[in-house]
Design goal:
Number of helices of chain A: 4
Strand content of chain A: 5-15%
Number of strands of chain A: 3
Strand order of the largest sheet of chain B: 4-5-11-7-9-8
Oligomer: heterodimer
Radius of gyration of chain A: 15 Å
CATH architecture of chain A: Orthogonal Bundle
Largest sheet of chain A: 3 strands, antiparallel
Shape of chain B: elongated
Number of domains of chain A: 1
Number of domains of chain B: 5
């Protein structure tokens, strides 16, 4: 059951969403697909956890949203990384790197 | 953070739009996912289904997203609130009963707490009130001679003044008159005419030392407070500070009042200041002081000779001090202040008693102590008078509220049991248990808050009534029924805790419902099994109600019987046909030499009134608050050392005994023939005669009074029956001495030690020539003669003020207000409690019968006789009743011990009361159980078995 969000390391979903938005604004489905592609289908996200995360990030001011037409000329809500979100992404990426390195050192030591 | 709140509020108030947006977005999301699958070759229908499985359905996702928002909590609470409101509206009978019992319970609590707060808990509105200490209790009041320094918290002026000027370890020591006599005040006339035309007002005035206000740290609202310079020489300082209330009510809040002259008892005085609204004196009296004057004004305010001379220094002041900050916090420093004060008192006593003090007396003096008592709430007569009763009443209203809570909890438990299927359905549909508990609690909180709001209204009305009762119609009083912040907070807290108290149990019973079992089985077994889980609760609650009702009934019974004993006791005088009226001829300008003639005219004029049998004047009515007393000496009786030779005195006209209905036991009464010229005579009470002359030879003895103006000698010519002249609760009969008014010299004896000043031998008026009370014995209802009395007195002299015209019944009642209050209220509350308990028991029993209809039907069908079924139902309530009684009786015995001191002539374990209480509780319980039980016997088995 790899499609459960709880299988994500706690609190990493927000960081991953920010990461997918780093290059360009995307709509919700696009983000889900991109996450699955990038993780080589290790993560499969259900709509509930995804949209709760959008709502959370939006309220924290890390992303904002606007309605736009998709390439298939369907109306969709696009999420855009804000400056604050970009800063947060950088700091979280750095922090994540540090932690992963530390955990790896511990695991290798034994 | 702000953004979160803003967006939260947005979705709260523009719910439709936000939901629509979410809807569209989610739909888009799922559509896109489905399209992807269609591209891979699935049919559209399969694709949608696959997406729903993979990603979750639209509806569930919406719920999940919605729940993640904080505002959704508010929203569901709002939903619960509306749901609660709807359920309450659907059962209006339950709602009305619940609201009524809650608001009565909460209202009672709030009303009593309002009084407790005002009488007992409120700090004095002064600087650092916790540093204030009073020197001994200082709750009495009066003028004493010949007691030790500090006894009854009383001090003479010279000693108080000595402490004031040298306060030792204290920050300061100040004094004030122990009571506030009514003075006649004429406000400054608005017209230019002299003051004689403006009517006088009778208001209480307090004498204060020069440092009184500065030591308390009270700043005047305007002008200045009385200072040491106003209090430097006797007779100087004709100034006064007014209370805010008096200034507003009687001086119309005149801003130019300062330095205007008013007259106090006829002496012109300058108003120097007005005190702030909240300050009503250090000693809080039912009728607060309207003005404060320097102690040097004592002869004017008391209308008496000076108490400020070394030769005549009676004890009339209370003293208080402000501890040093260290002494207020540290016990050792406090002890040091205490020791210093005791030393001052002992030195003072030795100085009075001179050089020849026996060793035994030395020892006694060494043990004299004046306890320093905390006074941060001030000194309050009401507190000492009503404190105990208020505490008892508070306990009573708390019990009533508990019973009301138990009732509501019971109703809700019963309802929770019937709503079990609904609860089970909700659980099965995915509602969380927390949500169900919350919903249930919100419903009860809705009830209790509404009950609290109604309770505040009830409390306001009730407090007004209580205050009116306590103050007996005194116009200006320190008590106010308006709830302040503390009261509102209290009511809120009571309401909320009540809600939680009676809501929690049903809520948990509801939440414990097992979804699967209840839904699986049919409703009949569901109710029976669910009912069982709540039945121990219900039984406990009913038992508790029976226990508490018994407790309250016993309390009320004891108080009622005690009051009956007080009212029906033998007071020793006529209690039905007397009218008494206080009057003050001095205020109308009469001289002592004119008093006798005035009394004569009053008696003649009033005797001629229709319906009046006899008339007398006296210094005090047969029962009165104050008392005029003194040591006496008797020929033929040698007092033991330090023996109490005190006797209460009354100055009476001829026919006094006949008028008040006191039978003469031996000798003769005082008659109109005992006049200025004839032999000075006295009549004493039986208790006095028996105490000093047990052989029965009191008549013919000569009695001398320790007060110079009425010294005597008086020859005892008669013995009158004992009477209660002061305290209806006193068990030892008061020793009374009656002397004829007509035989008191209108001038003070000239050999009186002069105050050291070079006054010529101008004879001084003797104020003891005046009577203070008119007493009329009527043939019919005495209140019918009030108008005639007023008219008759006015026809003699319209300037004579008549105060407190009342029947002897009202006069006696005024001594029992406290007992009447507490027995009326406990009686009322315990009836209320009983009613609530009956409703509760009836509710529970009828619910049980309804629930067991099916079972009862089967029993009938199998041939059980009606009697057996009746007994089966009754047995359950009999068991509850017996448990309640077994628990309640020891509790009631304990509670009776607690109120023992408040009872009069009644054993705390009064058998009649206990038997009556048990009977009433049992009858009530059985009756409320019998009605539903009888209904059970009328069950038709055919209907009952089919009923679901």
């Amino acid at each position: 059951m790899t499609d459960k969000p709880s299988d994500l390391v706690q609190g990493t979903l927000d960081m991953l969403i920010l990461k997918t938005l780093e290059l360009e604004p995307m709509h919700g489905y696009g983000i889900a697909v991109r996450l699955e592609q990038m993780s080589k289908s290790v993560f499969r996200l259900n709509a509930g956890s995804l949209f709760v995360a959008f709502q959370r990030l939006q309220r924290a001011g890390l992303i904002r949203s606007e309605w736009k037409a998709t390439e298939n000329s369907r109306r969709a809500k696009y999420y855009v990384l804000t400056d604050q979100g970009r800063k947060r992404l950088n700091s979280e990426t750095r922090e994540w790197g540090r932690q992963v390195a530390a955990i790896a050192r511990i695991l290798e030591a034994s | 953070m702000l953004r979160t709140i803003a967006s939260g509020l947005r979705s709260l108030f523009r719910k439709e739009q936000v939901n629509q947006e979410l809807d569209e977005e989610l739909n888009g999301f799922l559509e896109m996912a489905a399209e992807e699958k269609v591209k891979l070759g699935m049919t559209r229908k399969d694709a949608l289904r696959a997406v729903r499985l993979e990603r979750g359905s639209l509806e569930v996702t919406k719920e999940v997203v919605g729940d993640a928002r904080w505002e959704s909590f508010v929203e569901t609470c709002w939903q619960d609130l509306r749901f609660g409101w709807r359920t309450l509206r659907k059962s209006p009978r339950f709602t009305v009963v619940a609201l009524l019992s809650l608001s009565l319970g909460i209202g009672g609590n709030t009303a009593i707490f309002t009084l407790i707060h005002q009488v007992m808990l409120r700090d004095l509105p002064v600087r650092d009130p916790e540093q204030l200490v009073t020197f001994d209790k200082a709750i009495g009041g009066g003028i004493f001679g010949g007691v030790d320094l500090g006894s009854y918290g009383m001090f003479p002026w010279y000693f108080a003044h000595q402490l004031e000027t040298g306060p030792g370890p204290f920050q300061g020591i100040a004094s004030y008159s122990s009571f506030s006599p009514k003075v006649s005040v004429r406000p400054p006339s608005s017209t230019a005419s002299p003051d004689s035309n403006t009517p006088a007002i009778m208001v209480p005035g307090t004498l204060v030392s020069g440092n009184y206000f500065s030591l308390l740290g009270v700043q005047p609202l305007m002008g200045r407070a009385i200072g040491p310079s106003d209090n430097s020489t006797p007779g100087a300082g004709a100034v006064a500070d007014l209370s805010y209330q008096f200034w507003q009510q009687s001086m119309s809040g005149d801003p130019a009042i300062l330095s205007k002259a008013i007259t106090i008892n006829g002496t012109p005085c300058t108003v120097i200041g007005v005190m702030p609204r909240e300050f009503q004196g250090f000693k809080l009296e039912v009728e607060p002081a309207a003005l404060w004057a320097p102690i040097m004004m004592q002869p004017v305010v008391f209308q008496d000779q000076s108490y400020l001379t070394p030769a005549f220094a009676p004890y009339f002041l209370h003293v208080f001090g402000r501890l040093s900050p260290q002494a207020a916090t540290s016990h050792a420093a406090f002890q040091q202040s205490q020791r210093w004060l005791d030393q001052q008192a002992r030195t003072g006593i030795r100085a009075i008693e001179g050089n020849t003090i026996s060793a035994a007396r030395q020892q006694e003096i060494n043990h004299v102590t004046i306890p320093l008592l905390p006074a941060q709430h001030g000194i309050s007569q009401m507190r000492s008078q009503y404190g105990d009763s208020l505490q008892t009443l508070m306990a009573v209203v708390v019990l009533v509220l508990l019973i009301a809570c138990a009732n509501l909890a019971n109703f809700l438990l019963a309802r929770a049991a019937t709503r079990q299927r609904e609860t089970a359905t909700r659980l099965a549909l995915g509602s969380s248990r927390a949500r169900i508990v919350r919903q249930s609690l919100i419903e009860t909180l809705l009830l209790s808050i509404a009950g609290g709001a109604l309770g505040i209204l009830i409390a306001f009305v009730a407090t007004r009534a209580l205050i009116a009762f306590v103050t007996q119609g005194v116009s200006a009083t320190t008590l106010s029924p308006t709830p302040d912040a503390a009261i509102l907070l209290f009511t809120m807290a009571v309401a909320l805790s009540t809600g939680v108290l009676f809501g929690l149990a049903p809520a948990f019973v509801a939440a414990r419902t097992g979804a699967a079992t209840t839904l699986a089985s049919n409703a009949r077994t569901a109710q029976a099994s669910g009912g069982r889980s709540s039945r121990p609760w219900q039984k406990t609650l009913v038992t508790a109600q029976i226990t508490l009702s018994l407790l309250l009934l016993v309390g009320a019974g004891l108080f009622l019987r005690s009051l009956r004993n007080l009212q029906n006791q033998d007071f020793g005088f006529e209690r039905t046909h007397l009218l008494v009226a206080d009057f003050n001829a001095q205020l109308a300008g009469y001289k002592a030499s004119q008093a006798a003639a005035l009394h004569q005219r009053l008696i003649e004029r009033l005797s001629a009134l229709p319906g009046v049998r006899t008339v007398a004047v006296a210094s005090a009515p047969p029962i009165s608050e104050g008392n005029w007393s003194s040591d006496i000496t008797l020929t033929g009786y040698t007092p033991a050392p330090k023996e109490n030779m005190n006797s209460v005195l009354n100055r009476v006209s001829g026919e006094y005994f006949e008028t008040v209905g006191m039978p003469i036991l031996a000798g003769r009464p005082i008659t109109p023939a005992d006049s200025a010229g004839s032999l000075k005579v006295a009549v004493v009470s039986q208790s006095l005669a028996n105490h000093f002359f047990p052989e029965g030879d009191a008549i013919g003895r000569v009695l001398t009074i320790g007060i110079d103006h009425v010294k005597g000698p008086w020859q005892i010519v008669g013995i009158v029956r004992n009477s209660k002249s002061n305290d209806p609760r006193a068990t030892d009969p008061v020793r009374m001495t009656y002397i004829p008014l007509a035989q008191i010299d209108p001038f003070l004896p000239t050999n009186q030690p002069a105050g050291g000043t070079a006054t010529p031998a101008l004879p001084q008026e003797n104020d003891d020539c005046f009577a203070g009370t008119l007493i009329l014995r009527t043939t019919g209802d005495p209140s019918g003669s009030i108008a005639n009395l007023r008219a008759a007195v006015a026809s003699i002299d319209p300037n004579i003020p008549l105060l407190n015209v009342k029947t002897i019944h009202d006069q006696v009642s005024s001594f029992l207000t406290h007992d009447e209050l507490i027995s009326a209220l406990t009686g009322l509350f315990s009836l209320l409690a009983l009613l609530l308990a009956a409703i509760g028991l009836y509710g529970v029993m009828s619910y049980n019968v309804v629930r067991r209809t099916n079972e009862i039907g089967i029993r009938f069908a199998l041939g059980a006789p009606g009697r057996t079924v009746l007994w089966m139902i009754l047995r359950e309530s009999l068991l509850l009743l017996s448990i309640g009684l077994v628990l309640g009786l020891p509790l009631a015995v304990g509670a009776a011990q607690y109120i023992k001191v408040q009872l009069f002539d009644l054993n705390a374990l009064d058998l009649t009361t206990f038997v009556l209480a048990v009977t009433v509780v049992s009858t009530m319980s059985l009756l409320s159980a019998f009605l539903p039980a009888r209904r059970a016997t009328k069950v038709d088995p055919m209907v009952a078995i089919r009923c679901d």
